[in-house]
């Protein structure tokens, strides 16, 4: 929206993101898809097709983004799911043990389990045959696998929550360190939303009411930090990406399919394992590559001959049949 009118329309909430000064727009990122300025800590999700407040990631299992409104609920889900799987694993193990106790001699003399009830009435309500044993064993493997996988995700989430970050912001902080080291500058990037206390950071997400603190638009910052320190760093990283990118011209057509069979066996089997859409290219198209693999590159397609950065698509992978 128009900065001269002292407001910025926020596509993630049904109200205007009011600003005290129109100059604040220079510190905000502009979303070309939603055609509005993004609030601090907000990011655009291609799957949800909208900007999300304090976006952490898009979760395909809940078919939604994890962000400001549901970060606490999602983290509790990551905690309760492994606990439920541990409970299910215990049930599966005890079920298989009690059913096989009189059929196979395990030689577990040290195991003290009262089997008197099973000996008095060996009949089972549900027949426990070979198929039931196989199903229980398979379910036990799934339960243990889910416990490990989801439990690791819970640990990762708690680490970023205790520093009042998101997964995206942790990545931004790492890129900030790389940028400063690459240019050998004297500047120091300090993450502005870390309150300096794990308990204070914890309360930013978890509350007794279940409603997170704040409004998802304006955030308290630590002493000595600018309220837009993070967005300023993001703008610097985007500008740096433009400077360090390399321009290429496509020498072959590419339809944008996920796994191109006609581009060679190596290209087919080295397809990036991402959900990002591929850029369809025609012979002669200009591409601005920001990073690359051996057979694939990440970058932007230049839509006009002048190469104006404002007329480029978002960064997506494309096949590397291009010339410098």
Spans of at least 5 consecutive residues whose pLDDT stays below 50 are: 1-18, 305-315, 320-324
Spatial sequence of strands, sheet with the most strands: 12-11-10-9-13
Number of domains: 3
The amount of helix comes to: 25-40%
The total of beta strands comes to 13
- Give the topology string: H per helix, E per strand: EEEEEEEEHHHHHHEHEEEE
Largest sheet: 5 strands, antiparallel
Characterize the overall form: flat
SS field, number of helical segments: 7
Cα-to-Cα separation, first versus last residue: 38 Å
> What class would the helix/strand composition place it in?
alpha+beta
User: What would you report as the Rg, rounded to the nearest angstrom?
Assistant: 27 Å
User: DSSP strand (E) fraction?
Assistant: 5-15%
Transmembrane segments: 76-97, 125-156
Catalytic activity: L-cysteinyl-[protein] + hexadecanoyl-CoA = S-hexadecanoyl-L-cysteinyl-[protein] + CoA
Pfam families: DHHC
Family: Belongs to the DHHC palmitoyltransferase family.
Offer a quick outline of the entry.
With 324 residues, the chain is an alpha+beta fold. Helix content is 34%, strand content 14%.
What does this structure look like?
This protein has 324 residues and is of the alpha+beta class. It has 3 domains: 15-68 and 165-242, no CATH class; 70-110 and 123-163; 245-302, SH3 type barrels, CATH 2.30.30. Helix content is 34%, strand content 14%. It is built from 7 helices and 13 strands. It has helices spanning 71-100, 116-120, 130-161, 167-183, 198-203, 229-244, 265-269; strands at 7-9, 16-18, 30-31, 36-37, 43-45, 50-52, 57-59, 64-66, 246-250, 286-292, 296-301, 316-319, 322-323. It has a 5-stranded antiparallel beta sheet with strand order 12-11-10-9-13, covered by helices on one side. Strands 1-2 form a two-stranded antiparallel sheet. Strands 3-4 form a two-stranded antiparallel sheet. The two termini are 38 Å apart. Residues 1-18, 305-315 and 320-324 have low confidence and may be disordered.
